Amino acid sequence: GVLSKGRFYSTIPEKNYKIKDAINKNVFNKGSWNLMQTWMRGEKSFEEIHKSIAEKVGSNVEFLNKHLIDSVLRMQLNKGLIKFAIQMRSLGVRTAIFTDNMDIFDRVFVPYHSLNEKFDFIFSSSTYKKLKLDNDAFFLKETIKKMKSSPSETLLLDDSPEIGVYMNKIGGYFYHYQDYEKELPKFFKWFKENFAKYGTNLR
């Protein structure tokens, strides 16, 4: 990830490894992509997802709810990028989170870290009912418009090069953020070279 690091259900005890393995198989496996899309498009809540898989994974809804929430609360936040976003806002630059994510992000992660106070906008697929790459990245274009910006005045950081293709195609700036741990110094160097008037005090 770009903004956070961690895994869903990471708090499930080792003794329950069979449940965790079954979750990976039934939710995060390539063969379960339709279920994942349904969740990320906000068509189902995490409670509904858990109700549909509980028996398959050998657990119950309450157990799954608890460990999903607990694992999300334990996820690391990229403090360097948060600091960068706050600094940009102080310079009058509008900032946003643009993410393909589940309702757990909107309902738990965002309020827990007060992200709606740190960014001007939060565009989550589960809230807006569409994924980044749907319909030739219509969500991306809609996001830029809602921010009252234009592609040529917009920078997107993402770990997916696929969305970068669309960003470049419409004339925007794209930075492929590849490594949560080590990428920040590389990004700051790139940012200073491309946005000199904003990047002088980055570190």
Automatic annotation (TrEMBL):
Pfam families: HAD_2. InterPro entries: HAD-like_sf (IPR036412), HAD_2 (IPR041492), HAD_sf (IPR023214), PGP-like_dom2 (IPR023198). Coiled coil: none annotated. It comes from the Bacteria. This is FCP1 homology domain-containing protein. It comes from Candidatus Shapirobacteria bacterium CG07_land_8_20_14_0_80_39_18.
